[in-house]
Amino acid sequence: TLSTQTDYRDGEAQTDPYSPEYVVPSGSVPELLTLATLTWGRGLPAGLAEVEMIERAREKRAWEATLPAMDNASQIVKRRKMMNDMERKEWAFREQEIEKLQEVQLEVLKKLLWRREKNQNELDAKRLDDHWQNYQKAKEEKVKKIQHDCALMLRKLIAKRKNVMGKLERRDIIKEYTDFASQTYAPLSRIGYFPDNHSERYVVKNFYLNTFAGLCELEASLPDSVTQVKIKAPKPKYTTTETGFVKRSARLEVDLAQVHQ
């Protein structure tokens, strides 16, 4: 009927399963003591491998019980033969375990090699992609430069063709001022004109804006309607109709005013 609250969660308070103390009577060998090497996390809870180990231990104890006593020479020879057979079986079993372990290690090695090859392939693909991007960028820059040089040479050829006979053309001022793309309106930097130079000559310098006396004179010249604002009160709207009813818009304005208050 009561409950407790601790400062630790279950994972921090969890311990290994409890193993009580035991006493072994003299003359008895409990089978459970043969499993004393198994502890929690190291063989427990038992899996298929642990069960097979327990069965082999039982078979070996049963085999040891069937060994003949060493009374005479014939029994000794029989006992030695049985022990040699059992030793061969144990070595064969050990070899099978070694082969299984080697197969597991081989599978792990294959996975590691496959993962390394996959990572190497990804790295090679990335490097090839980077090289491809660099070559594409160099190609685009080269093509752009060729196009620029081509346009430059075409302009030079067109200019030479205009003056193919070596005659100089006179300046047509009217044509220049009618064409807004001419040197008069849009001079080019490549012919020696830089519009950013001497930009201070475009700054507006005004006496009325840069000096206090000019501002006072400018303010005195302004009419009174600029400095003295006159606000006319709005005329009230007709809220009733000719027949004496209140308009819907007027009623809505009254409701809005009440809500606002």
UniProtKB/TrEMBL annotation:
The UniProt record lists the keyword Cytoplasm: yes
InterPro entries recorded: CFAP91, CFAP91_dom
Compartments where located: Cytoplasm, Cytoskeleton, Cilium axoneme
Name of the protein described by the UniProt record: Cilia- and flagella-associated protein 91
Domain CFAP91 intervals: 4-156
Entry GO terms, CC: axoneme
Principal cellular location given in the protein's record: cytoplasm
Any Pfam family hit: CFAP91
